[in-house]
Amino acid sequence: MANQGEPSPSSDPGAKKDFSTAILARKKAPNRLIVDEAVNDDNSVVSFNPEMMEKLQLFRGETVLLKDDHSLALKINSFKTLIIQLSNLRVRLGDAVSVHQCQDVKYGKHVYILPVDDTIEGITGNLFDVYLKPYFLEAYCPVRKGDLFLVRSGMRSVEFKVIETDPPEYCVVAPDTEIFCDGDPIKREDGEQLHEVGYDDVSGVRKQMAQIRELVKLPLRHPQ
User: Where is the CDC48 N-terminal subdomain domain (predicted)?
Assistant: First the structure.
C-alpha cells in the first residue's frame, strides 16, 4: 500500500475545477493510503513499507483499524491486503483507506464462528479440528463481528464468518479464547462475494462514476 500522493487537477491554481467528479477525489492525509495486492495469505495481517510504519508511528505486531465505510481490525506484519479483507471493507485494489491505531484491543472471552455453506460442499470431518483450531493456534488473530476469513487445509479452503465476539465488535483470539462453531452453515449474503465488480473495473467514465457513487452513497448515509 502506498501513500495517497497522486497529482490532482486542482493542484494547478489556474486550472478549472471539475465539480462533477469531485466525489471521486480522495482527501490527502498522512494515514490515507492506497490498497495494494497482498504479499502473504494471512487474513489477519496487513503489511506496510518500513518508511510508512515509521511515519505513522506503527510497530510490527500492533493491531490497527482500516476504515472506509466499514472498519477492519488487522495485525501489522511489517500496506498490502488480501481480497477477502477487501471484501470485509467493501473496497478494492486501488481504493483509499485510512489507518488508525487500535488501542486496548482485548483478548476475546469467546467468539462464535460459522462456515459459509457454499465452501463446505463435500467436506467431511470436524471443521474445528481441521480448520479453526490450527488457524488460531498461538496466532493471536484479531477478529471483528461480521468479517469473513478464509482457512486452507490440504487441498481445500473453507470460508468462515464471525457471528459474535465477546467483548463486542472486535477482539483478539488468544489461547484462552473459547471458539464456538456449533450451528448450521450460513448462507452468503448479498455483497459478500470476493470477486465483485467495483469502481476500478470501469475506466474512462469519471463523470458517470461520480454520479453513480453519489446515487449509491446518499441513500446509505441519509436513509430518511
Answer: 32-105
Say if domain 1-7+19-103 classifies as CATH 2.40.40.20: yes
| Check whether domain 110-180 has CATH 3.30.70.890, yes or no | no
* Global confidence as pTM: 0.60
Cell output for 219:
441513500
Q: Which part of the chain is CATH 2.40.40.20? A: 1-7+19-103
Q: Which amino acid is at 206?
A: R
Closest CA to 133 of 155, 158, 116: 158
pLDDT digits (tens, 9 = 90+) for 77-92: 444 444 445 556 656 7
